[in-house]
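Job type: complex structure
Entries:
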Amino acid sequence: MNARAARLRWARRWALAPGLLLLGLTLLAAPLLGQVYQPPAYGSDFPLIGSRNAIWIVAQVHLMFAAFVLGVPMFAVVTEAIGIWGKDDRYDRLSKEFTRLLLVAYSATALLGGLFLFLLVTLYPGLFAYLSEIFHISMWVYAGLFFFESATLYMYYYGWDRWKEGWAKLGHLGLGVLLNVWGTAVLFIANAWLTFMMSPPADVAPDTSPAMVQFWSAFANATWMPINIHRLIANAVFGGSIVAAYAGYRFLKSRTPEERAHYDWMGYVGNFIAIAVFLTLPFAGYWLGREIYEYNQQMGVTMMGGFMSWLWIVQAFLIGVLFLAANYYLWLGLGRIPGGERFVPYTKWMLAVLVIGFMVWATPHSMIADRDEVAAMGGTHHPFLGVLGLMSAKNTAVNLMILTTFLSFLMYRRANKIPTVSWAKTGTLAQGTILAVCTAVVIFYGIYGYFVPTLVRIGFSVYQVLAVLFTIVAVIGLDLLVMRKAESRGPIRWGEMPERSQYALFVLVITFTWLMGLMGFARSGIRQHWHVYEVMRDTTAHAATPALGYAAQVISACVVIFLLMIAFVFWIGGMIATPTLVAHEEPVVVPVRGTDPGPDAAPGLGLDPQPLPAE
Amino acid sequence: MASVDLKILAVGAMTIALYTTVANIIPQLESDLPPEVDLAAGMTPEQLVEIGGQLFAGAGGCVVCHAETPGARAPNLSADYQGEGPIGVRCHARIEGMACKDFLYQSLVQPTQHMVEGYPPIMPPADRTLTQPQIWAIVAYLESLGGEVTVTAADIPAAPADGAPEPAAAAATGAGLEAMGPAEIVQVECVQCHLYEGEGVELGPALDGIGARRSADELRRAILDPPSVVTEGYEELVGLMPVDFGRRMSAEQLESVVQYLSDLR
Ligand code: HEM
């Protein structure tokens, strides 16, 4: 035996000694420890509404605020960057106006977070002790990050006018990026805790002591990344839609044409960001769904086919409303673009596609869970609806709805432009061909899906999605080229928007908030009567997961509370400083950047700022 | 200006009300808790089958895969599958020399031990979510699908001493009816809602002459699973009768009550 091995043996033997000593002491102390106070698993029930509803509402409203304070910085940084590179001050002021609201929203988030924590500790001490045993370090880091985050936020806001030239401006933008980095880190940490409750690693069993759970495997559990991505995207959408609704409110309250123009434009930008990002959400959702299936088939089928299957019908309904409201807003907006009237006749066909798609998507599929549901539906397979409800039809419908919405944006973008490049006709034709082929591909696989086994059919949805993504990228790319040096038919007449369009923005934000509440219920209800899925049982009287109707009432309560609080935040925000439009003294007319929106302009769709109407 | 605020409020309220309504008009499904199997009560095979059936269709989460519909994710258990009969029949032939109930138990806790050809290994081990008594109750139920129930209380291992108590389930169950004989049970418990020999409350159907109207089988079911046996004219009152009598009585008590009622002609 060599010396090294011998040393190792020695080392091991000695390492054992303190361990044995500790064991001996523990055994000795055991009778004494038996006397020690043991915390109960649950605190006393919360008065009136019960513990479950109390924690549900506070957690959900906290989550909505969190989504807001994470989503708005993303929005702010993007608009600030557009302001810098697009050399347009308006974006910069827009960005600042929203950062100001963040200051107030931030404290509301923290307050709700504190309330949430206290409720958790007092109502569910057993669960909290369990989680903190596993996650304590990340909990400290989480709290610590808030210091950095608030410091960054303060510098970002109060440094706005100080660092506004040259490199300092870029540094300021860097602060905004940093703010997002902190926010994302916070989100990822909290997501680790809640996804652990949903998908604990397979080796964690009910009798596993939390002290023995490997931190990293618990932290980076099966659904962690999918939820991270899904929420990140959803938060950006949420931020954009709140901005749009805020602008809508201001628009309706405007007294001067300048104000109307400014807020009309702001509403458009917010809505644009919300919808553009929103289009990627279903893909992230499918990924999340797949990971859940892979983690535990039973959980997957409970979610999609079990007692929750109807939840997706409601989700589809909400998303249908989102598509309709967003497109409605865009179509009304065509009226303020010179040349937009060319496209108006098409909108009724697009409306038809949306409505049909909506109906197909919201059709219940025969994913029957139990006899109650069979009875409720009057048979397992609805003779007609059953076929439409198959996944093939749904995927086809949602892809066509995405394409339609994309087309609306495209119309918007092109409405007031006259291409000047020599190959414009060919280019447009190519765009049309791509769109047509894509539609054909989507429909082909949708129909073909009925003639192949399920497993093959699931693969088809990937082709459909790829076709749509390719089309979006290719058509935009072509459009940038075709519209280079395009002539303008005249500037967008910002502010000339019918009032009813603004109500579409409100419907959007409320729908989105409600959707968040619904998905929060999905995420948490999928655990059924478990605090930690298949590891720690909920043994309270509230253990059974309620039906959707009941959940909907709680969700509505959350939404109302959130909207009231947000209205308060905006009101306070309005008092901190007067709105940006009044604040700046330069002439309102923003330089018209000729006929060439050019590559340096906002690369988006129709985002190019336009002069305000000359008064 | 104030009218703008009002309009916004109205649009908001209408949107929220719409979603709340939509969510309330679809079928309302709760995820129920798995019913407890109380061994202390000394359950009969019928009681086990009854609870097993509830678990199978509800909280056990089996029917999401083992659905009746063609093309389900897992083989049909209640009807014939590929000419081998329902599960209560084909269980005998699955593994040479293995008793039906043992095969079923194994296929629940170690689903990959024996695979049905053509299906992926997606079935989760039942002992992750269910207790041993609950699993045995399901085995009894599966046996009852076309076969004979051989599971007895003796098959079921006693709950481990450190097993966490389940207060929710315990609270839902009333006190046991230990020392009571059948006549006493009927005259003390049942008359709280049924008329019997002029005594009691006229809520449910009278018990006088019930043996002439109902078979022993129906009577047993009416006690174990009240909604499954409904007397004409009482449809509105379904759900009123306590569902926990089955659990509160021992096997002998249940049988004696059934016998007692059958004799009321
Ligand atoms: C089949 C596709 C989808 C599945 C399976 C799915 C599933 C989920 C789940 C389980 C959550 C977690 C909820 C939480 O942690 O609070 C969630 C969050 C969310 N989902 Fe989806 N989702 C899908 C598609 C969509 C789509 C298309 C949208 C479009 C609007 C969407 C919007 C949201 C929102 C807003 C949230 C809340 C984000 C947050 O917590 O901050 N989802 N989704």
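Summary: Chain B has two domains: 39-155, 180-262. The longest helix of chain B spans residues 2-25.
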